[in-house]
Automatic annotation (TrEMBL):
PANTHER family: PHOTOSYSTEM I IRON-SULFUR CENTER, PHOTOSYSTEM I IRON-SULFUR CENTER-RELATED
Superkingdom assignment: Bacteria
Pfam families, A to Z: Fer4_7 (PF12838)
SUPFAM superfamilies in the record: 4Fe-4S ferredoxins (SSF54862)
Taxonomic lineage: Bacteria, Deltaproteobacteria, SAR324 cluster
Entry-linked Gene3D superfamilies: 3.30.70.20
Official protein name in the record: 4Fe-4S ferredoxin-type domain-containing protein
InterPro entries the UniProt entry points to: 4Fe4S_Fe-S-bd (IPR017896), 4Fe4S_Fe_S_CS (IPR017900), PSI_iron-sulfur_center (IPR050157), RLI1 (IPR013283), TAT_signal (IPR006311)
């Protein structure tokens, strides 16, 4: 007897999501009120730009995943079974990757139901949430610590001098702000005709313990090291809207002036600040759906 050909079972995303949702609702009905907590996730999700009010969003989102597919930085995820009614809906985890508010907001354009409001087209209109300075005691700006120096010292303490993405990013940020004197020193040290971001790979190729120690010392003495960390504003995709301001205060413990970051009304909670914050746990974090109510 000839062997029967095996059927090719393919999982349809929409069918899977619908089936999963029906399973959750059915389980709640079967198990009674004790199962109700699984219907809603305990964690507020950061939704993509333009998401409707949460209940309306959950009711209108068809879990198609189109927003995820067109997201250039690939930061949008789909919620799993533990999301309850939120299963299959899109969300963003800021610490893993914030929304860069792409030009034209392709995720919004791709949404077939308007769960992501088609009435917005600019990043400054996103209203995803709000950034908060959740750990001010470790904020580098308040401590008067430069982010490049902090990151280089962290590499030094780890003993890992591998020229990875982190070190590449540090060098790129450093060379973009060198003054004329610092540029001349950099050229002489690494034998460069010019000092640009394009030349960073050549510098990385020469990176050893001696050159790294020189780099750390050079960075500490640079003009930009005199300014505390401001990466939350510098990397913000709508920084021209001034979503974060810095106010000078006297740090009595340090005996010097430092700057406190203050979230302004123009913040839309995209999450890039949380992603890029260099402290071990992000000093600035996003509260989804939160609205600006004025500075305390």
């Amino acid at each position: 007897m000839a062997e029967q050909p095996k059927k090719n079972f393919k999982v349809n995303r929409r069918r899977f999501v619908k089936t999963s949702t029906l399973f959750i609702v059915g389980a709640a009905a079967a198990l009674g009120t004790g199962a109700v907590p699984i219907l809603r996730s305990n964690e507020k999700r950061l939704r993509p730009p333009g998401a409707l009010e949460e209940n309306h969003f959950l009711a209108s989102c068809i879990k198609c995943g189109q927003c995820l597919q067109v997201c250039p930085p690939k930061v949008i995820k789909l919620d799993g079974l533990m999301g309850g009614f939120s299963v299959g809906t899109p969300y963003i985890t800021p610490r893993e990757g914030g929304c860069i508010l792409c030009s034209g907001l392709p995720c919004v354009l791709a949404c077939p139901t308007g769960s992501l409001d088609h009435g917005i087209s600019l990043g400054k209109e996103a209203e995803m949430g709000l950034a908060v300075l959740s750990k001010p005691r470790q904020c580098l700006s308040i401590l008067g610590v430069n982010d490049l120096v902090f990151r280089l010292e962290k590499i030094q303490s780890s003993g890992n001098l591998v020229p990875d993405e982190n070190l590449t990013d540090i060098l790129q940020r450093l060379v973009e702000k060198l003054d004329d004197k610092e540029t001349a020193t950099w050229k002489e040290k690494f034998g460069l005709q010019e000092v640009t971001v394009k030349e960073v790979p050549r510098v990385l190729a020469k990176m050893n313990r001696e050159n790294f120690d020189w780099l750390l010392s050079f960075t500490k003495d640079s003009e930009q090291a005199k300014v505390g960390c401001r990466i939350c504003l510098e990397d913000c995709p709508i920084k021209d809207e001034n979503p974060i301001s810095f106010h000078k205060i006297k740090n009595e413990d340090l005996g010097k002036d430092v700057f406190v970051p203050t979230v302004e009304k123009t913040c839309v909670g995209c999450g890039v600040c949380e992603e890029r914050c260099p402290t071990e746990e992000a000093s600035i974090t996003i509260v989804p759906r939160m609205k600006w109510k004025g500075n305390a």
